[in-house]
Amino acid sequence: MDGENGLICAYALDGGGGATPLDWDGIANWKPAHGALWVHLDHAAEGSRQWIRETSGLDEAVGSILLARETRPRSMDLTLGFLVLLRGINLNPGQEPEDMVSIRIWVEPNRIITLRHRKLMAVEDLQSLIQAGKGPRDAPGLFAMLAELLADRMEPILSDLEHEISRIEKNPPDARRWLPRRPSDRPRLGELQRDAIAIRRYLEPQHRALAAFDDNGFSFVNDVQRMSLRETEDRITRYEEDLTAQIERATALHEQIT
């Protein structure tokens, strides 16, 4: 379905972890009785933009934010739902992980709309879970699961960054002091430091956006979903702290290399 005039995928959730795939006609004929609706779009495609503006029923201000050219992680509490802008690690071939990919999310009791331009592996992970019958049961559950999967995809990249800094720190040690003595490591340290700074720049607003959703008190979000979101918030906070520590390590090593 990817590339069908902006529609990447759409599902009517069956309430048990699975879902029925939908095309544009299926979306047009959907009713809440069919199960929660997830519509995932390419925000740059004209078909997506037309649907958001003319057919989705979204408030004009919400639609404008969802279709905006540039975004930063944030959230907005509106009367009928919640707007959340998040970022995920860029795992597309030939691209840099720190060039993070935005995903725009509108959550309401029986519907969730997500938009991206570049691919996000976390979304593909979510599709795989749905196809295996292990997906979310409703719209807020889908949001909580997507936030968790975005965090899951960050973890190995941040771990690799930490291990690379440790490698430079310890290999080779000076005979007298536990310090790297290779000037050739300086450019790589600078690169790692820039990567860490670039990723951390988006994590603080991402944490705030998730916290705002959790704090809102929407009646359609259950206790299990709130707990999942809080756990994801905590993970993002730990990632921020770990990145700060790695930036400080890289800075100290950079200064020590002769």
Question: Could you characterize what this model shows?
Answer:
The chain is α+β, with helices and mostly antiparallel strands and 258 residues long. It has two domains: 7-135, Beta Polymerase, domain 2, CATH 3.30.460; 147-256, Up-down Bundle (Methane Monooxygenase Hydroxylase, Chain G, domain 1). Helices cover 50% and strands 16% of the residues. It contains seven helices and seven strands. It has a seven-stranded mixed beta sheet, with helices on both faces. It is elongated and about 65 Å long. Mean pLDDT is 87; it is low at 175-181.
Note the main attributes of this structure.
258 residues; alpha+beta; Beta Polymerase, domain 2; Methane Monooxygenase Hydroxylase, Chain G, domain 1; 7-stranded mixed β-sheet; 7 helices; 7 strands; 16% strand; elongated
Q: What is the CATH T-level topology of the largest domain?
A: Beta Polymerase, domain 2
CATH superfamily of the largest domain: CorA soluble domain-like
Which oligomeric state applies?
single chain
Question: Runs with pLDDT <50, length 5+?
Answer: 175-181
Strand order of the largest sheet: 2-1-3-7-6-5-4
Could you spell the SSE succession in H and E letters?
EEHEHHEEEEHHHH
